[in-house]
Amino acid sequence: MTTVPINTTRQMKQKNIMLVANTLKSLISATKSDISVQTGLSLATCGTILNELCAKGEIIAKSVDESRGGRPAKRYIYNSSYFSVLSIYAEGTNTSGIISSCLTSADGKILAEYDEVYNHLTAETLMHRIQKIVDNHNNIKAIGVGLPGVIVDGKVLTCDITNLEGLALTEQLSSRLGIFVQVGNDMNYTAFGFYRNNCRNINAPIAYIFMPPRHCAGCGIVISGEMLRGASQFAGEVSKLPFYDHPKNNMACHSARILERLIHIVSSLIVIINPDTIAISISDEQVSHNCIEDLSNALLKKFDSKHLPHFVYRDSIKPDYHNGISEYTLDAYNNFRVFEI
């Protein structure tokens, strides 16, 4: 996420409010003293912020710790029902696919999940689906939308679902629903979700390769916790690498062609960003988990073992995808509501 510059007293206060709220989420339950130790903020500052957050209902003074002399200490918890976040993505083509939705609480817990098969997807179909979920859950304050395409400033430039191309989707949804909305690329979200769940403390590059059954491979990259989008939001379009459509052996079996493309893609990533970890998901019944071993053996013929990343096979991108949308949207919404509202 883009870091908000702190250049005024008000912004510093707002930054401290976010710090206290996020710290309380991570601690589950804490006293003012606990939060002061974790954040480095003074007891007085923590007390003021906790009082403000309690007054808004964002946190709850749950109980009072047993006193060891002096005034007993209040214990606080984050109010998970303060608001909720909707993660939704569409995958497939104009004529077939799914719309997958996941509702999470303000502290990231999954509340509900829905999958809907479609036979014809238009912008109105997608908007109607989102509207229906919002109507059924009136506590939604932020929506993240994932699409298989290039999205710049909330506008869909290219997409596997071509009916959505050219739409200023963020603007249209925000105007229609009156809710914070962001729209992003499927692989960026998926890589971010995998990073947050599995590699949060790793600053070295993390990559995520997805090879869907009917479309070209895609790749998401996270470096030091930030999505790598590129100057024109085109980073990760690995199907445009020069070898992709020209396997050496055109008569090779299907699984062998997939492995060959995977070797080329991973080799390119190794020499360009030198990733620590690469997650791989292949939606093809002919390709098994053994592809990781085959891939590693092939790469050892080209690279010293110290340059090979740690490989993780993912049976499905769905949990990483939804986690990425939810976490990134939650971060963005928290920055929005604290610094801009």
User: Low-confidence runs (pLDDT<50, min 5 residues)?
Assistant: none
Class per helix and strand makeup: alpha/beta
How many individual helices? 9
CATH topology of the largest domain: the name is Nucleotidyltransferase, domain 5
Number of domains: 3
CATH H-level superfamily of the largest domain: ATPase, nucleotide binding domain
Proportion in β-strands: 25-35%
Pfam family, one: ROK
Protein name: ROK-family transcriptional regulator
InterPro entries: ATPase_NBD, ROK, WH-like_DNA-bd_sf, WH_DNA-bd_sf
Organism: Yersinia pekkanenii
Description:
It contains 9 helices and 15 strands. It folds into 3 domains: 9-78, Orthogonal Bundle (Arc Repressor Mutant, subunit A); 84-188 and 319-340, Nucleotidyltransferase, domain 5, CATH 3.30.420.40; 200-315, 2-Layer Sandwich (Nucleotidyltransferase, domain 5). A hairpin with a 2-residue loop joins β12 and β13 (226-227). By secondary structure, it is of the alpha/beta class. The model has no long low-confidence stretch (mean pLDDT 89). 37% of the residues lie in helices and 26% in strands. α1 packs across α3 and α7 crosses α8. It has a 5-stranded mixed β-sheet with strand order 6-5-4-7-10, sandwiched between helices. A 5-stranded mixed β-sheet has the order 13-12-11-14-15, sandwiched between helices. A 3-stranded antiparallel β-sheet has the order 1-3-2. The two termini are 18 Å apart. The protein is globular and about 75 Å long.
